[in-house]
Design brief:
Number of strands: 19
Distance between the termini: 44 Å
Strand order of the largest sheet: 6-5-14-15-16-13-18-17
Shape: globular
Largest sheet: 8 strands, mixed
Radius of gyration: 21 Å
Helix content: 25-40%
Structural class: alpha/beta
Length: 417
């Protein structure tokens, strides 16, 4: 049965959901609050199971032209010494590559595809859904338009993909309060620089108090340089597991960062394979964010309204799970809605599949996720090591990585016998 479906939010999760639902014959409308989309933000990673979803929507050839197929995720200490190498993509036994890509460019691509497939009149910017209610078998949504007017839209169901500051989540949980901060600030930048290592590797180096993440997000240019995404994490305050500290106000999120906040900590991080301070100084843009999440919710569905992506399960950016899990939400909700005429039962099935898994990732990431490996090595060998096996058992690290990946939904092919 074809449904009229309204989606609040034209980000990666909302647009992927729109494309997946349209492909199954539903009538979809997307309302994005931003008046005019621009390629904002920096880099993200799409794990292979999310790339498989986008491939199913016919997008992989175009994304391969825009992105870098990640060859490996490397964990290193703050001296740049390799601790663990996790091979990714096809070489790692996955059915699809892992893609490192510019978030804004990906969003614009999804937006263009959604407008082409759904019709431009059904994928609109400058429309903020501020609230909604279920009346019988319909949803009535209140929309704030860019010119200041308001409107009411009707649909069979509403999917709230309106981000960590979701108006619809706040409607359902008015006493939840602000996102929870773990005391860590992130400075995200991009720099044009010569490729490092093989030009396809993602590296996480450091420890829980100071971490440097770096990976390329576009193919090399004609002059040999490559757009490289990097993140400096620096702990400003300590907290218990799960956050709860007061974060900077929302108006200070994604504000321009300053080198003065970074160089005292990272100015001496010169690796054999990368000059970290030179990379930071070469930034073409530098933005500052608090590392925040929210507590897992007891339920996502309220009548014929449900949550998706960061509106449902915002999590620390550890393990490349943010956009990936939103894309997996999209696939799941499209599948369950196409399998039954009972809308509320379908939304319950979606929640039963997705909410426990995402709550588990939130919890794991509050415990540092895979980055706990870095802390172990820093504690045992703060000055570096001559032989990794003298510091940590490689088999222990390998088992830890495999447990996290299984819990986060990684899907590797069985190895050939």
């Amino acid at each position: 049965m074809a449904l009229d479906i309204l989606i609040a939010g034209g980000g990666i999760g909302g647009l992927t959901t729109a494309l997946a639902l349209q492909a199954r014959g539903h009538r979809v409308r997307v309302c994005e609050a931003t008046a005019a989309l621009k390629p904002l933000g920096v880099g993200i990673n799409l794990l292979p199971h999310a790339v498989a979803v986008l491939d199913g929507l016919g997008l992989l050839p175009a994304l391969r032209q825009m992105a870098v197929e990640t060859s490996a995720l490397v964990f290193a200490n703050r001296h740049g010494q390799e601790i663990y190498r996790d091979v990714r993509g096809l070489a790692g036994g996955y059915s699809h590559p892992q893609l490192s890509i510019h978030r804004g460019e990906l969003q614009l691509k999804l937006w263009a595809e959604a407008q082409a497939r759904l019709g431009a009149e059904r994928v609109r910017s400058g429309q903020r859904i501020t609230g909604a209610r279920t009346e019988g078998d319909r949803v009535l949504a209140q929309v704030q338009l860019a010119d200041g007017d308001t409107a009411e839209l009707h649909a069979d169901l509403l999917i709230a993909a309106d981000g960590i500051h979701s108006a619809l989540r706040r409607q359902c949980y008015p006493d939840e309060g602000a996102p929870r901060w773990n005391g860590m600030m992130m400075w995200r930048g991009t720099s044009l620089a010569p490729p490092f290592l093989d030009g396809r590797t993602m590296v996480q180096a450091g420890h829980r108090r100071a971490k440097f993440v770096v990976y390329p997000i576009a193919p090399p240019q004609a002059d040999g340089t490559q757009l490289i995404n990097w993140i400096c994490d620096r702990r400003l305050r300590e907290d218990g597991i799960g956050g709860g500290l007061t974060a900077p106000g929302r108006e200070d999120w994604s504000k321009p960062g300053s080198l003065d906040d970074l160089l005292p900590t990272f100015g001496g991080w010169h690796f054999d394979w990368l000059d970290v301070p030179a990379m930071i100084k070469g930034a073409t843009q530098l933005l500052e964010y608090p590392m925040v999440d929210r507590d897992p919710l007891p339920r996502w569905r309220h009548g014929r309204i449900t949550l998706l992506g960061d509106a449902a399960h915002p999590m620390y950016p550890i393990g490349s799970n943010g956009a990936t899990q939103a894309i997996m939400d999209a696939q799941c909700i499209a599948e369950v809605l196409s399998g039954t005429a009972d809308v509320e039962a379908a939304l319950d099935a979606y929640e039963a599949q997705r909410r426990p898994l995402c709550a588990g990732i939130v919890t794991m990431n509050r415990q540092e996720g895979l980055d706990a490996i870095l802390d172990l090595v820093e504690d045992r060998a703060p000055d570096g090591f001559a032989r990794l096996a003298d510091v940590i058992d490689p088999a222990e690290v390998d088992a830890f990585v495999k447990r996290y990946k299984a819990a986060a939904g990684h899907q590797q092919r069985p190895l050939a016998g």
